[in-house]
Amino acid sequence: QPLKNLAKVTALAGALASFSVQAEPVEIKFSHVVAENTPKGQMALKFKALVEERLPGEYQVSVFPNSQLFGDNNELAALLLNDVQLVAPSLSKFERYTKKLQLFDLPFLFKDMAAVDKFQQSEAGQKLLNSMKRKGVVGLGYLHNGMKQFSANEPLLLPKDASGKKFRVMASDVLAAQFAAVDATAVKKPFSEVFTLLQTRAIDGQENTWSNIYSKKFFEVQSHITESNHGVLDYMVVTSNTFWKSLPGDKRKIIKEALDEAIAYGNKIAGDKNDQDRQLIIDSKRSLVVELTPEQRQAWVDAMKPVWAKFEDQIGKDVIDAAVAANQ
Ligand code: LMR
After folding, report:
1. ipTM over cut 0.95
2. What are the helix and strand counts (H, E) for the chain?
3. How many angstroms does the Cα of residue 90 sit away from the middle of ligand 1?
């Protein structure tokens, strides 16, 4: 009998041991607001694949696209509550946490995405990843989308064409000032509401990248898109200090490497994705893509660039100068 009991105890201990080994994987939630078929959507899925391949059974990444879990109005608050562990808002959406990132919204700051990339990788650009540390937000890397275009229900060729119109902007005072500079009204609205606002004509226009205009069908409810390339829409992938610190050092390293690779992948496909989506919009014939002459483009530059001076103190002249230098 004692032997039998011992066998039972041993079996129970074994069962308990295997139970603890088979513990549930730790879930990392990654929430974002765009479609899956976008640079950010693809980057998030790549990150999931890499983490689950390298830490099988230990970590699991759940990706929630299309503002399904959290949207523009609450994703950063949710991050700080650890209700979500990774988000990648556009650089225009951090205003409540730092004024420094307003830099990226200055109209006509970067001549192209190569300049954006050069600045982000520079010392000044990397320093901005830490600009929200005191608020508990940890910047893990920059992710590209691309340059923004204006859209409306009539051709916007000159600044006066925008006058009196209502445009949706992301929650950024710089973007609001950019439209005020051409006598237009800016309305700050979450990304998830833009299609309906355009469709119901509650607003006249918006600004976004080709991949967002295509994947969210804005081109079906806007007759004209001006190829203005007037500003950049990029992201910062962020986590909370709470979550990041809670990870064991060796796991954090593997997760960070997976993230860096996923970001590199997203950055590599972003340019092509936007080019393809631009072409798909042209081919659809639902919306006319309008190119600007150099003179027309210059008129927008002249109207909008004075906005820089208003934000120079908040952003820092040294940071603006470093960004401008990346155009060389
Ligand atoms: C927008 O709100 O227009 C964009 O920031 C959406 C996104 O995340 O690309």
Report:
1. yes
2. 13, 11
3. 6
